[in-house]
Design a protein that fits this description.
Layout (H helix, E strand, L loop, with lengths): L1 H4 L5 E5 L5 E10 L4 E9 L7 E12 L2 E4 L3 E2 L8 E11 L4 E10 L4 H7 L4 E8 L10 E2 L1 H5 L6 E6 L5 E2 L5 E13 L7 E12 L7 E2 L12 E7 L5 E7 L5 E7 L10 E7 L8 E6 L6 H6 L5 E8 L6 E8 L12 E15 L7 E8 L7 E8 H15 L1
Antiparallel strand pairs: 1-25, 2-3, 3-4, 4-5, 4-6, 7-8, 8-9, 9-10, 11-13, 12-13, 13-14, 14-15, 16-17, 17-18, 18-19, 20-21, 21-22, 22-23, 23-24, 24-25
Length: 398
Amino acid sequence: MAETSGVSEKVTLFRQEGGLTYRIPALLYLSSESTFLAFAEERISPQDEHAKFLVMRRGQKEGLSVKWGPLQTLETAVLPEYRTMSPCPVYDAKKGTIFLFFICVEANVSEWSQINMGRNAARLGYIFSKDGGRTWSPMTDLTEQVIGHDVNNWATFAVGPGHGVQLSSGRLVVPAYTYYIHKHLVGHPTFSYTKPHSFAFYSDDGGKTWLKGHLLQQPLRTSECQMAELVDRNNSLVLYCNARSSDGYRIEAFSRDGGHLFEAPFKCLKLQELNDGCQGSVVSFPSPQLGSESSLASSKTPELWLIFSHPTSRKTRADLGIYLNPCPLKENSWKTPWILNTGPSGYSDLAVCTGEDPLFFGCLFECGISMYYEEIAFQLFSGAKLLKTQNTSSAEEN
């Protein structure tokens, strides 16, 4: 139990039944209500093309445990003749508004066919809630307003998946990626040459208007991504991006202007990637001053650390690890991962229980006995547990 080990028992929130499958977890923590919101896609099979709509469960944190409510279908996050995918929530703590971003993709059109043919079938949408996720607005379609004519050069695109972030400036940031059409193949008008690029959507007016940032540049390929806020030695904002890639390692990049433009991306040699890649999650949190658990939550220093969740196996989606980075502005500073879930493990999403002492993290992740998509489970773990595992790993390495 969390009270003694610093890790709660694993609780299944979404379970595969027959052909019905739940995939693509996204997690949000509302500190004002001590509440988790867990999102996922409901599908009629594990295949991407068989996604239907988004679902949610609400969890009330009570001390070191979470009491979860029933599954709810997000009935307004829909577009007729389209399937809803890639939940990506971001919370405006200043106004108390939750924005849930997602994409709607034409029914039965696969991502692979969009990439090969250079024909986008996705649209950008969101719904919002002003009452902690109890009720939701109708869907807003932002495709023309935010992407505009650039969508003609995108074979397809998506947000996240996972969570967005609100920066200390108040800016709302939604991580995203697109398969950009670099050229059409000569003699094959129905085929195109595309490469994936991560980027961000952002808003500086509380979600009234949204803009898109510049794409991360070649030659590295960056797709599904998450972002976190850091602060450098000059107390200046730095936005960190951690992206999936097919280049053998996770790709990292920094932005000094809040996500409009990222510096040159680079491979992180401490974070190896599966051959076909896998989504991962990242969050920042205040660094400990004296190594105590309470200082994790109460530290007033501007320095921030990172944790990252991702399968640790190089061969298959298995053994979900939690990685710690105490020097995130220095390349290759990630520590040896602590294994949170042994066995099949896929996509995951992290959340920090901000404003609490002791500090806890929530992790929502795909897992199973034979396959990683059999269920989506949740666990809490403490900052003290994380530091203890890292201290143990460091001692063993020495």
